[in-house]
Amino acid sequence: MSRPNVMARSSADQPIVTVRPSRGLEEFFSYIRGQSGLRILDLGSANQQNVTFITNLGHRLYSEDFLRILHEVFGAEDTVDQSNPGRIEYFLNHALDYGEEQFDGVLIWDVLEYLTPTLLTAVVDKLHAIVRPKSYLLSVFHSDDKLEIVPRYTFRIQDLSQLQVTQHGMRRPARLFNNRGLEKLFHRFDSVKFFLTRDRLREVIAKS
Question: What domains can you pick out in the chain, each with its CATH number?
Fold first, then answer.
């Protein structure tokens, strides 16, 4: 098994960049391999690396800066209340303003860990609605569900089976999950598959 390659760590105040294998990403691309013209949604905000990679495969990539919109609607505090129905509706209308069965796959990354239960349920239900049957969703969760703070990451696609993972400090999650909790979270999906990584992350493929 190849080891993660730490590319940069100049100081405690600067991002830590790692390139590592990703079985979840490999599974995601195995689903769309050989197809063209698919619509993929990336919730990690637009970045040229992901756009170029997906479009070079012959697909269309749509990007949403999910966490930025979350902070704008609910505030940036870790303990903010996300249960207000009006704010939830407003958030969904801005972060996931798409009709039913619009996408063939979603790169969720780690954003679900920052949602409290009421908003989390609404977001997962919306994701289920906007993907077509048999679509794949890739999300990332910390595997240690006892942590009080976790690294905050951004993700860049290197190739069909490798991710560039950049750590930007730490943040308090709204909730962490074990396998059973993730199965409940994605209970509306046909199947859920887990991949553990060497950096204590759990990659999850949910199939609609």
Answer: 5-207 (3.40.50.150)
